[in-house]
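Summary of Year 1 activities. Much of the first year was spent building the evaluation harness for sequence design. The harness presents a backbone, in tokenized form, and records the residue chosen at every position. We chose the following record to illustrate the format because it has been used consistently in internal testing since the harness was completed.
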């Protein structure tokens, strides 16, 4: 939520490219997110997300489950680029 403003300040342009997170997990041999596979890591990650967003005055809505299937969103992103 901050990268575009930071990039503009430095004279860069951000080119967003969708990707499928599940493929990265599969490449690592995981069937799920490492944040679910390692509960302590996941608990810290969500706590850190809340803390970071609060410090930056950003709204954060934790998803009811993670990760979500992002294939449709990736396809839409590719179609609109």
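For this record, the design step produced the sequence shown next.
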């Amino acid at each position: 939520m901050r990268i575009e403003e930071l990039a503009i300040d430095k004279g860069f342009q951000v080119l967003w490219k969708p990707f499928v997170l599940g493929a990265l997990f599969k490449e690592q041999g995981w069937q799920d997110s490492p944040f679910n596979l390692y509960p302590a890591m996941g608990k810290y990650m969500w706590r850190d997300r809340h803390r970071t967003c609060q410090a930056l005055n950003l709204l954060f809505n934790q998803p009811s489950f993670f990760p979500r299937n992002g294939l449709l969103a990736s396809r839409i992103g590719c179609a609109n680029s």
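The chain has one domain: 3-79. Quantitative recovery figures across the full test set are reported in Table 2.
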